[in-house]
Automatic annotation (TrEMBL):
Residues 89-162 form the GRAM domain. It holds the Pfam family GRAM. Belongs to the GEM family. This is GRAM domain-containing protein. Signal peptide: none annotated. It comes from Carnegiea gigantea.
Amino acid sequence: MSSTISSAVAVSNTGNPYLQASPAPPPPASSASHALQNIGRKFESAAKKAETFAGNLYTHLRTGPGLIDVAMTRLDQTARVIADGGCENVFRREFGNIPGEKLKKTYACYLSTTGGPVMGTLYISNKRVGFRSDYPVRTGVEWVYYKVVMMVDQIMAVNPSANLANPAQKYIQKKKEIQ
């Protein structure tokens, strides 16, 4: 009785018509190759995120009153947040405190007004959405900080959209419940 080795498989040559030797499928990719593919995917994902961040930063700086003004305002805002003990404390100071309210997220953004874009911070909590300008806006004779606040339960829908002429400029349009 002789045996034949084909593709690292030992098959007994007994003349059985139902038994045939065939080559084995190629071995799976080595762990090093698999690791390199994972690293490549992670680099690709990071590059896309960096490209989006850079585009958003460029749009943010271009939309503002000037590069130096925008940079100084952002530095000033960061210093205020740190000095006040974080975004949660700034939110409570600016918009008051509602029992059980938790700040979820903050965004540096612009509020579109008839007088032009107003640079500020959007605060989103589990009960309210608020915006406060980073610098005072002139209203007639006096200068005031621009503030807007809405209860979350009064908002029917939020529609994200983009500027057709410049897709990097993104907008959020809210639909408020009529009372």
